[in-house]
Amino acid sequence: MTLYYVIIDEKEYQVNLTGDSATVNGEKLDVELISMDDNGHFLLKRGHAAIEMYIHQVSHPGEQSQSSNLEILIGRQKIEASVESHYRRSRPSQGQYTDGDLRAPMPGVVFEILVEAGQPVSEGDVLVIMESMKMKMQMRSLVSGQVKTIAIEPGQDVEKGSLLVAIDQSF
């Protein structure tokens, strides 16, 4: 499962990709996106209908962003979208906590804990799976180190900012 945040015309959508299926804001999509070449040419199929589209990444001069900016051409319509992965969004930026603690990015329920106290972990390892708004999210380690404390249990409700797992970086 991979969770993305897509912003189009100042409206944000949560896109969850799992295997061959996708949901947008919790609603299952019944479409198939087929790559036609390595130049961003795709075929978007829904049932028996299909439409060609082109997707390419754009950059704006002087802009440094945590997200990817995409230009999508469907027929004569041009759509600009900003796409950010859940992993990248949940990483601390400068000035935020950097002590290795993994915190809940939003309210939810702990679905599964994939590590134990004392276990070594690498940056990006999945530590916890949370469920929020009917979607499961992989919570990844922000640093490499050793699991110091697991502050949650499966089935537990957590609030935004709640400590999930503490990581000792001096390991």
Describe this structure in words.
By secondary structure, the chain is an all-beta fold. The chain has 2 domains: 2-86, Lipocalin; 91-168, Beta Barrel (OB fold (Dihydrolipoamide Acetyltransferase, E2P)), CATH 2.40.50.100. It is built from 1 helix and 17 strands. The chain has one helix at residues 86-90, and strands at residues 2-8, 11-18, 21-24, 27-29, 32-35, 41-46, 49-58, 68-74, 77-85, 102-103, 108-113, 120-121, 126-132, 135-140, 145-150, 157-158, 163-168. The strands form 3 sheets. It has a 9-stranded antiparallel sheet. Strand 6 (41-46) and strand 7 form a beta hairpin. The protein is elongated and about 55 Å long. It starts with a strand and ends with a strand. The model is unreliable at 92-98 (pLDDT under 50).
Could you write a compact summary of the structure shown?
The chain is 3% helix and 56% strand.
